[in-house]
Amino acid sequence: MQRRNFLKTSASVVGLVLAPASVTALAANAELNTSKLTRRISKQALKDLSISFPEMTMTSPSGQDVTFELNPLAARYYPNGLFVLFEHTDEIYIYDQVGQVLGSIPLNLKYGLIKDFAVDEDNQLVFLVTGPGTIKVIGFDGGHYGDVGSQGLNHFEQLNGIKSITLDDSGRLHVLCSQSNSIKVFDNSGTLLYSYSAKSLLSKPTLHQLDGQSEIKVVGGQFKDREWFFAPSGQPIG
Questions:
Q1: Distance of alpha carbon 59 from the chain centroid
Q2: What confidence tens digit (pLDDT) does each residue in 149-199 have?
Q3: Is the full-model pTM beyond 0.70?
Q4: For residue 134, with 0-12 CB atoms within 10 Å meaning exposed, 13-18 middle and 19 or more buried, which class applies?
Q5: Counting runs of H as helices and runs of E as strands, what totals does the chain give?
Q6: 221 to each of 26, 40, 52, 181, 205, how far by Cα in Å?
Q7: What's the DSSP call for residue 205?
């Protein structure tokens, strides 16, 4: 599963080339103007950018129509754009850093609930967590190019209970699994390279989320209030 096989040059993909943000716009939002470690963006930061959330209308048992905003399931900031997946939608929206819509990436409804995603801007790819052991690779045009890993417990390279993913700056995919409570790292051919995990003096803490590219941030602990930092090689930092 070489990344060079995924590179798209069709008009539909080129049309989503992202514009660079202005320095003024970045400075206006402190959460977007932080280090390279900050890739995930909170709901409040999206609100601060005046992004209009999609809405859904449902009919109550009394027959009244009720309209409500859809919450973001995942929002990630990359150098050339902000990618947001909202609940109950079939696309990932792309915004510039002042909240203007640049385009969207269509998602196949058969994927079901998507728990997380990571973006490879250079090759215009999106990695989707679509099940407990499934990561699908799609292009910016929505085309399906392959899968990473397989679900199971019998072999080290298998995945089970995927919680979170991130791509490092060399294109390696870091996958946090609840079953092993560790991070498994795959190269761009889908081959498992190595694994690593956060440790404490007293116990092995529960891990919840990955972030970052040049450094990998791992969020864990009972209240998600602890952080560990690793080089992409899995070596602890600090």
A1: 32
A2: 888 877 778 898 999 999 999 999 999 998 888 999 999 888 999 999 987
A3: yes
A4: middle
A5: 3, 17
A6: 31, 18, 33, 12, 6
A7: -
